[in-house]
Amino acid sequence: MTSPRTTLSLVDTDPAELAVDAIVIGVHSQTTEPGSGAPAHALLLATGGESIAAAFDGKLTETLALLGATGGPGEVIKLATLGTVTAPLVVAVGLGPEPSGAAPAPESLRRAAGAAVRALAGAARVALALPLPDDADAPAALRAVAEGALLGGYRFAGYKTKPQPARREPVAEVLVAVPDAADATAQAEVARAQAVAGAVRTSRDWVNTAPNELRPPAFADAVSAAAREAGLEVEVLDEAALKAGGYGGILAVGQGSEAPPRLVKLTWTPEGGGNGKRVALVGKGITFDTGGISIKPAQGMWEMKSDMAGAAAVGAAMLAIAALKPSVTVTGYLPMAENMPSGASYRPGDVISMFNGKKVEVLNTDAEGRMVLADAMARACADGADYLFETSTLTGGQVIALGKRIAGVMGTPELCERVRVAGDATGEPAWPMPLPDDVRKGMESDVADISQVNAGMDRAGHMLQGGVFLREFVTDDVAWAHIDIAGPGYHSGEATGYWTKGGTGVPVRTLVHLVEDVATNG
Known about the structure:
By secondary structure, the chain is α/β, with parallel strands linked by helices. The protein has helices spanning about 50-55, 60-65, 105-120, 140-150, 185-210, 215-230, 240-245, 250-255, 310-325, 370-385, 395-400, 415-425, 435-440, 460-470, 510-520; strands at about 5-10, 20-30, 40-45, 75-80, 90-95, 125-130, 175, 235, 260-270, 280-285, 285-290, 330-340, 350-355, 360, 385-390, 405-410, 430, 450, 480-485, 490, 500-505. Its cofactor is Mn(2+).
């Protein structure tokens, strides 16, 4: 199922003269000095909207303030222009306090563009006249505005069978006002934003699809079809190939479902082999997670259709990589299974032989993600990789420790720091966490090489237990990072910024950024 797409292009016409349904400008909040006689909270027009303000004879911010505008981040206020400019509607989006001596942070622009475009659903054509610097920060700012606009225009197609009169279509076309629409650097940023945001939207579509329509074979087919169309090399291992290959973890988790598991491998190989580095991306693809025999509570279980968000992100990132063509070899591994309770399900107490030969004692069938990931990560190491990035909605402990917006990162310290920097650059924050020896000691098994969780079922350091377990399946010569997106991968609250309700597409943009970083810097 494909959601309607918003298109984006550049324009260098005076924003006041653009024939669009709405023109979006930025405003900053401004706190005035006590005793100055000015309102305690005043608005400050952001750069980019000067010609719009001039058309209102200098009364634009005053009028917006009367309508309740404060300039707070993401706030959207609409004002009918009554012919003062060509567009019938001016939309002011809050950017927060004016940054001293600099343009707004890229993430502020990204969220503002997303909020404005989302609020303008129903409009056919919208222009953004947001502040874009004319210095070295210009490409990052333009990238942020373009990504925010394209992602803010996302809406899942859904399954409603009757017309919804109050349901407005996303903005069809967005124009971004820039000093020179023909500038090659600006055009390149737009092309990149379209590729990356398109991948994020695809990831969101996969996550939002009903789980009865995206069981492992169907998910594998969908990813494979998109990958082949993008020009990637595709290999799909079905249940027979998984058994022959010794993928005990993937098979164990999938054996309780009538929909058999899959392992999808996607490969991007640059011309001439690129810079010689090899990057592996691994994503958890549990298409639905009941918890298996260790069944979950009913409340909220419907959101477990999102337990394949890691695989969706890796598959979508590979599509963006195929479009961007970085000079580094990248291989994506997507282990897919449905964790269901049945007479065939794997059980607490089972001992599973994994792809790398290690024996794992199962204590909780709801800790299934690490089982499928371990096989895929071991396969990635066997194939050969210099860097391995794995992402998964792995533990509720991530949400407890870091909240719903910040991913937890574990693995090789240098690579974890690289992930943190990439997350800061893309607006997908991540925070490095330790892998303590005492956590590993707590996972000693009496009968196998390692227990799947703490042997005493102690949930202390629950997020770290996942990282400690996965470390057992990475060879010493591979730098690796595990990115736990249990919170950031799915947004169950109200829409905010460029996030709509449902799948977020995190961390597609981080993975693409990391691959480009390796292509450039090794």
